[in-house]
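Hi team,

As requested, here is the filled-out complex form for the adenosine-5'-diphosphate run. I kept the field names the same as last time so the parser does not choke. Let me know if anything looks off before we queue the next batch.

— J.
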Amino acid sequence: MTNLIEISGVSKRFGGVIANSQISLNVPEGGITGLIGPNGSGKTTLFNSVVGYHPIDEGSITFEGQEISRMRVPQIARLGLLRTFQQTRIYGKMNCMDNMMISVPQRRMPLARMFSKFPAEVIDRAEAILEFVGLYQKRMLPAGSLSFGQQKLLEFAMALINEPKVLLLDEPTAGINPTLINGLIDRLRRANEDFGITLFVIEHNMRVIMNLADNIYCLAHGEMLAHGTPEEIQNDQRVVDAYLGAH
Ligand code: ADP
Ligand code: MG
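And here is what came back:
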């Protein structure tokens, strides 16, 4: 299996805090890679580095073999690498369809956009994706009126309309009602299996990540602690200790 993302020896400091120290990991194409670790272990920082949110201090990050560690967010996004946030970033006063429309890349919005008209195929696609995440009935409602879990589904839909090759999800189930969690996991898996989107997922809920990921990395104190299958990670004493030590 080829690696879509290769992270090699990446370090990131904030003043005196070493958020990531010499991190190396691979995200295989077509798979679901998990990233776990206690709070403050450097997971979000690593995502931020991959998507170009801030420069890294050392190391290399490649996407499809191309060095991306000196590229900016929009350039990396254009290559097909997108992320969602721990906190949702939707426009609460706008309806779901309009939130979808502002997420469509400019290059797919030819002249029609200048006349405030969206091409029919873009509208059809947005509706199909809202249907896929279960929000079709709510497409004309203000995004702010949705439950937190539904807002996360909308954010997922907003990422999907960009047709990413790989999607980085930062704690997709955090704050979501348990009854919605299974639906979300099911959609993530279908996005991976049916649409071929490679997933790289930070997740705090152990049950979720053990179910979803085919390989898992564990960070602790900014360092790589372990890597393996869900079963190997679950039975790794260092991982268990890292979590116990954090509580
Ligand atoms: P996690 O996502 O695993 O909970 P983070 O990557 O958010 O961990 O944080 C790792 C460490 O880096 C923490 O000590 C955090 O306080 C620090 N950190 C993260 N982002 C910043 C920032 N923008 N400025 C200063 N410190 C930061
Ligand atoms: Mg985080």
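Two things worth flagging: The first helix runs from residue 43 to 50. Residues 119 and 165 are 23 Å apart (CA to CA).

Thanks,
J.
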